[in-house]
Amino acid sequence: MQLDLLKDSRKVREHLKQRAREYRAAHHRGPGKGNDPITQITIGYQFDQAGWVAVVFDTRPEAKPDGEWNFYIKQNATEFPDWWKAYADWREGDSPLALTLADGTMKSLGPSAGDQEVAACFGVMLQEALTGARKDGDLDTLSLAKDCILVIEEQDGRYGWSNQPDDGSDAYLKQLADGVSSKGDDGQIAHWIQVLDRVASGEESQSDWSFLAPRHAIEHLTSFGERAVIPLLQLVRKWSGEAEFQGDQPQRMIEINEMPMQTPIFVALRAVCDSGSHNPETESLLQEILRKSMQANASRRLWGIIPVWTARCLHRLFQYPEPGQDDETNRLLNPEDFIDRRR
């Protein structure tokens, strides 16, 4: 599937212009108070589970890139459904992902390309759209602080940019890795699993940069190859009976909030899917996780992503049937093709 990011960049620019024209302090939909100057503009985005771009105006006096924009996605997002469709076709198939970049050049990403490389293609386009809008006066109708920060963030931390480079994130990531280099392989794997577990429990949220931890931990864990698969699945099993969302029967979608465990468990499952593991223990753990998560989601209107993504792992790694998913509720439509079944 061909994606035209040059065309999409124009759509983003128009969206930014419209948001600036329509912005009213009384209807502020972001962190801070509506009557205060805008101290930070964040463009957040997602391209793999869904395709959207959220433009969030932040008026907090001490605003910084701390992930607070994630609580304001639904109110500020515009859809790009072709993004995740193209990503899914590329990830599940053998054909390359063909892109027209924002500068008009062509780029083709083969199966060996990583998600971070894909994320960067979108992120650079959004960065250029935001900085271009600021430079060309598209945002002049807004009450911007003199030192207004511009931020681009992929929701799972696979791309990030700010016009304030000395933001403290490097120090946080170094702190996460403190002491790990002196450990053996098993000790290092255990260290990064503990980081994911702390994020899942909410303990790591004391840091403003905790949203960077899941992706950083996964990058280290995947460097150990299949050796990290079983520890990752044991972590997923631990959390597979918990609710991934707060408020699963909302009157409005705005009332749904992700629990801290959702992101680290999602990135763990995706890493397992990409691992190529054919270990019988891997299959057994995936079966156990699926049974446990199905039971946990049975009474919910909005399901978490664990059942479907576990089924995707079984499909990709062990040739189970392709999972069906209800787009409205995330429900796994064909559990009978996965539960207690072997190749």
Q: Could you give the topology of this structure?
A:
Elements (H helix, E strand, L loop, with lengths): L1 E3 H18 L15 E9 L5 E7 L14 H4 E3 L1 H12 L4 E4 L5 E4 L5 H21 L8 E11 L5 E3 L6 H8 L8 H17 L11 H10 L6 H11 L5 E2 L10 E2 L3 H12 L6 H18 L8 H13 L25
The largest sheet, given as strand count, sense and whether it forms a barrel, is:
5 strands, mixed
CA radius of gyration is: 21 Å
For the largest sheet, list the strands in their spatial order: 4-3-2-7-8
Element string (H = helix, E = strand): EHEEHEHEEHEEHHHHEEHHH
Residue-averaged pLDDT: 90
Number of strands: 10
Shape: globular
**Structural class based on helices, strands and sheet pairing:** alpha+beta
Q: Classify the helix fraction into a percent range.
A: 40-55%
In total, the number of domains comes to 2
Low confidence ranges? 250-254
Our count of helices gives 11
Q: How much of the sequence is in beta strands?
A: 5-15%
Protein model, in words:
Strands 4-3-2-7-8 form a 5-stranded mixed β-sheet. It has a 3-stranded mixed β-sheet with strand order 1-5-6. A two-stranded antiparallel ribbon has the order 9-10. The protein has 343 residues and is of the alpha+beta class. The longest helix is centred in the middle third of the chain and has 21 residues. It has 2 domains: 161 residues, no CATH class; 169 residues, no CATH class. About 1% of the residues have low confidence. It has 11 helices and 10 strands. Helix 9 runs parallel beside helix 11.
